[in-house]
Automatic annotation (TrEMBL):
<keyword id="KW-0325">Glycoprotein</keyword>
<keyword id="KW-1133">Transmembrane helix</keyword>
<keyword id="KW-0808">Transferase</keyword>
<feature type="binding site">
    <location>
        <position position="176"/>
    </location>
    <ligand>
        <name>3'-phosphoadenylyl sulfate</name>
    </ligand>
</feature>
<dbReference type="InterPro" id="IPR037359">
    <property type="entry name" value="NST/OST"/>
</dbReference>
<dbReference type="GO" id="GO:0000139">
    <property type="term" value="C:Golgi membrane"/>
</dbReference>
<dbReference type="InterPro" id="IPR027417">
    <property type="entry name" value="P-loop_NTPase"/>
</dbReference>
<feature type="active site" description="For sulfotransferase activity">
    <location>
        <position position="87"/>
    </location>
</feature>
<feature type="binding site">
    <location>
        <position position="168"/>
    </location>
    <ligand>
        <name>3'-phosphoadenylyl sulfate</name>
    </ligand>
</feature>
<dbReference type="GO" id="GO:0008467">
    <property type="term" value="F:[heparan sulfate]-glucosamine 3-sulfotransferase activity"/>
</dbReference>
<keyword id="KW-0472">Membrane</keyword>
<keyword id="KW-1015">Disulfide bond</keyword>
<feature type="binding site">
    <location>
        <begin position="87"/>
        <end position="91"/>
    </location>
    <ligand>
        <name>3'-phosphoadenylyl sulfate</name>
    </ligand>
</feature>
<feature type="binding site">
    <location>
        <begin position="293"/>
        <end position="297"/>
    </location>
    <ligand>
        <name>3'-phosphoadenylyl sulfate</name>
    </ligand>
</feature>
<dbReference type="InterPro" id="IPR000863">
    <property type="entry name" value="Sulfotransferase_dom"/>
</dbReference>
<feature type="disulfide bond">
    <location>
        <begin position="276"/>
        <end position="288"/>
    </location>
</feature>
<feature type="region of interest" description="Disordered">
    <location>
        <begin position="41"/>
        <end position="67"/>
    </location>
</feature>
Amino acid sequence: MQKSGDPTPSCQRALADGAERRIQKSLSCILPLDVRPSSVEASRLKSDQRPPSTLHIVRNDTPSPPMSNLKFGNKKLPNAIIVGVKKGGTRAVLEFIRIHPDVRAAGTETHFFDRNYDRGLEWYRGLMPRTLESQITMEKTPSYFVTKETPHRISAMSRDTKLIVVVRDPVTRAISDYTQTLSKTPDLPSFQELAFRNQSLGIVDTSWNAIRIGLYVLHLENWLRYFPLAQIHFVSGERLITDPAGELARVQDFLGLKRIVTDKHFYFNRTKGFPCLKKPESSGSPRCLGKSKGRTHVQIDRDAIEQLRDFYRPYNVRFYEMVGHDFKWE
């Protein structure tokens, strides 16, 4: 006699058939996406709902199973982590890759390795979604890339962890960072006041976080003390906009996944200037990125921009040489 909560025979066949079978419709078996058995975890699931924006997320054609049926899989420590960078496109990468049936991701930034490390790995594991053995568990916290202690801590958890870094022209990244902060703190000093110790002499203030984040080569040197370069994949924030399918193809290859997320999933939103994920007709309202995505950047003096480009250039060149790719940030 089959026990309550056990998978049906057809469900067992679907589990055995692998990822390709799981993405097909099934009237008799719906594979679970997550389990939130406790009231705390149920609250966390509710908080994962995101407001509408330009990025439309493809949902599976099968209806979502009731909470009582979400009993498959286990909570595992992540196999892959998007570690940076802030304002580079990390949220887009996570939302794009998580439509893959073999990827499950934590809904919020955990900040475990930079702010909550003393809570322990079991606390961290508890934040993860339930996954089947064949699925990859992921999370993203952009501040990890620039936090000195993080590489060692992730390595201590697992030396096999795959790392994804979304990088972007450090000058436009800094302006985007400032624009976001200004929207929350209207009385913020001007960009030039924060970016330069002495603008007339071209002396950049590297203590300002918006500037410091863009020194990618310095942060990468710290990571390479604990992980081989082959274990770190770099996504171009610029190409993520112009060729999202191409960037996601490389991410899927890096993670050892079948290329299921392809160009057929995307369309370009000309109003916002961002690629979006198409939603199937059978889906409900799409989940989207926050309204802040695509906000207009503040206008920065051209001379200040050129000074920052001159400042970053040698760091960029060293970064290109280290990763073996020219991102052409000029």
